Amino acid sequence: MDADDYGANEAQDSDFPAVERSRLREMLSLLGLDTYQAHKLSLQDFLQISSDSMKNRAPQAPRDLPWNFLRKLQALSSEARSTTMVLDAPPDARPAEKESQMEEEIIYWDAADDLAADIYSFSELPTPDTPVNPLDLLCALLLSSDSFLQQEIVHKMSLCQFALPLVLPDSENHYHTFLLWALRGVVRTWWAQPPRGVGSLREDSAVLSRAPAVAFVRMEVSSNSKSQLLNAVLGPGHRPRDCFWHRDLNVGTNPREIADGLVEVSWFLPSGREDLDVFPEPVAFLNLRGDIGSHWLQFKLLTEVSSAVFILTDNISKKEYKLLYSMKGSATKYYFILSPYRGKRNANLRFLNRLIPVLRMDHSHVLVKVSSTDGAGFVRRVRAIVAHVARAPCRRLSVEEMAHAARKLGLRVDEDCEECQRARGRAERITRRVKDADAYRRDELRLQGDAWRKAAQVEKELCRAQWAGDPPDKELRQRLLELRAQQLGHEPTGGLQEFISGISGPAPGEKLYFLRWMEWGLARVAPPRPRQPPETILALRPKHCGATESSEPLGVEHFLREMGQFYEAESCLVEAGKLLAAQRRFAHFPGLASELLLKGLPVELIDGSARSTPLRWVSGLLRELHARLERRPRLVVLSALGLPGTGKSTLLNTMFGLRFATGRGRGPRGAFMQLVSVAESFSQDLGCDHILVIDSGGLIGGALASAGERFEQEASLATQLLGLSNVTVVSLAETRDIPPAIVHAFLRLEKTGRVPNCQFVCQNLHDACAPGPRPRERRPLLDPPGEAGRASVHMERPGGSMRTLAGLAFCDPGKQHIWHIPGLWHGVPPMAAVSLAYSEAIFELKRCLLENIRNGLSNPNKNIQQLIELVRRL
Asked: Which candidate in 24, 31, 514, 843 could, as Cys together with 172 as Cys, close a disulfide (CB 3.0–4.6 Å)?
């Protein structure tokens, strides 16, 4: 049965005489989501790699739609909401056979001698159109997802510049949910220009930043599309944005079944460019799906949180008049958008005349739009009204403050659950004590100071001596033990003990809540950004320079580093016989970290501060991981290397849905790893059970061979990361110059025969619309290395011949190894969406990487035990 028929006619309920099923249950069943009501879809389900991860085909049945939506959303595709189905015909079916089959069906229904049945049989034949409205699909998916997947869906939607769900309707259980937690992860960046003084780039949580809100609602029937009007108001010039889904977008005309009552939100954010900024400051736009008479609770909420409400209608009935009359005394400004020729003109005027004094309106608050109205002029008029409302003294609320109003009206708020609030309290006991990130690291995370850096340097010297075959240096060993004993002389501080309790004792859900609250709380005390000219907002990405020591923000990784150092110091003394194994207090720390890795959180592999690998800590963590994955131990390591600011973290996040830190050089400098699970049904075909993805972060800074120790340090780190990898993505700047340290690492590994399968990615990081100088001249990748690369070759192979780097990567000329990725943004940030071309190119790269893994083009796959040994050797 075609979903267009569901709920379209009450008479059809007789088709299900045995079981009366609600529209919501029908929709969940149609989409195959009914099995996820008791046990919700999780973030791990979203991230898991399956055979479908390598396919880019249209959905062929309603049950494919949720997974198709999630896959496209993970890839940040602007077409994620376009969920048209393509019927899967038998591959050997010839056109004549199809005609014959169709004729047989028609004859069968004719033979039934029932005209009505004959007509309905045609209406129920599958068509290439999706039977589900995209908003119904979104609501069904959110209702079937746990809190963390809901948050991920909303975060990805924000990157696609889709309108975000704010109030989620659930008619089945007779309550609606305000999605405060789901919106917590959304961060907005905009250009803030005060009336006097110098403007600056500002970044803040979408939940915490205050802005005037303007709501658009429908009363009964409106000939004007509310969502189309909103898109036109949000879009600059003649380029409307498709933030809000509407009836003219592909399958948008399909009737909604369960999404009525949904409230969506989108923001206008200024970029600092006068030719693009419709409004001088951020403005929130709210959109209620459905008629206000049927969703009075949501409408009441909008009137309490908005500075202005636009009501679109053709008719004002007596019922709606009474409801609006009850809003008497409201501080909200009301505007009507009418199509009088389609409605009862005299009745409308009569009711409006009565409402004008009640709602404190005047005749300028009534706008008329008919078919002959100039569309562009009408949009300008609406914008002028919104701008006037925003400039005047008006209500400015954050989403968090809107949630308070929702609670008073009886709406459920998603983050009010007990687990979430307990975790928040625990995290705030830590974060409220952080006033200055550097001071907190110095006073509370004491093992990461000079003692750790000195110990790391001593261990490097001991390691070099060991591999050179030199006798053990007793003085160095004694110095190492002294440094480790000095570290172990400290006790874990109160903040660290609270953190350990947060990731050890609670239930799995509470643990994840705690870590998210920690991330957000610590982000609030990050070092302030310097003022920058407006054009810098166009990039919204890291610069090509490393962060300074003082600029590194405090994050969860620093607490895990501290745990790692306690474990390192204790293990070192136990190995030397200076401490009995029975006296160990921190042996369980690696197990706690491995559980975070299993939950899909990034964990540090190489310490970005000491620029060294805490070998005992990493080995212990991997051993614990092996114990937990003993039944499925096969592993492939995929890494991404490149200079900061070349888009490698964004690339990995888009490709696999990961959470590596990104953003203007303010992320941690260390190399991080994240575990991606492979579905059991696909692991045999792919040849592995898990993929360990490593992001080199800010470790490779582009030091030249002449830089001495710094270059050697970068080359060693690059060698380690490449040596661990089966597959590597090298992300290049637009000049296509390969960092000298990476050239050096390839030459080192070539001697061992362990060069990974390598894909070079050239990303277009320079926006076509951005002012300023154009990129420097590009050099073809397959040309011999540049001057810096030649110096690296000479260091590793004095007098050696000049070969291209592509040759070192065992490139098959018949295979794709060089990828040209289009720019990330379509348009001008912060209102730009991710480019469809970027999304499609990343998907093709992902498919190529998985094909290489499946075809064995990478280094031999390894299990976790082999990886531990490889970490030790490298």
From this structure: 24
